[in-house]
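Q&A FORM
Asked by: J.P.
Topic: structure of DUF3299 domain-containing protein

PROVIDED:
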Amino acid sequence: MNIDPSGKLFILSKNPMASCFFCGMGGPETAVELQFDSKPDFKTDDVLHVTGTLKLNADDVQHFNYILTDCEAQLMK
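REPLIED BY: S.T.
REPLY: Here is the structure written out as tokens.
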């Protein structure tokens, strides 16, 4: 789910969109924030392989508990 007008910040949920923790069906531990350096070229429902550097966030309430920085995404075939 793209949550940033620049297209560089996404949220990846363990659950489908209808039951993600925004809708009350899971906790914040079920999602990860994906931070890309540049706007990636994929659509919301594309199947991807995403790599990045894991950052554990305990203090900044403006971001998720788990953050992948410097993300790169490759479409899966």
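FOLLOW-UP: The first strand starts at residue 9 and ends at 13.
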